[in-house]
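Check my protein:
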Amino acid sequence: MTEENVINIVGGRHPLQELVVSTFIENDTILSGGGGHNETEGASVLLLTGANYSGKSVYLKQVALIVYMAHVGRWHLVRLN
């Protein structure tokens, strides 16, 4: 947990999606709330594009679910580095 204005998820997974698909690829996310963009700070906005059924909504829901679990005290279910 951190008090910084940053979301840094390494190897993020969506627990409900993993129940219905045979293969799930872990996703990393780095978002910072403000400032410039560089490799250490991360972006403050992401633009997701891709074909239909390519996992964009799963990725967004995964990040939201991990952040929500961290806020309600389920951070121990999320692997933190």
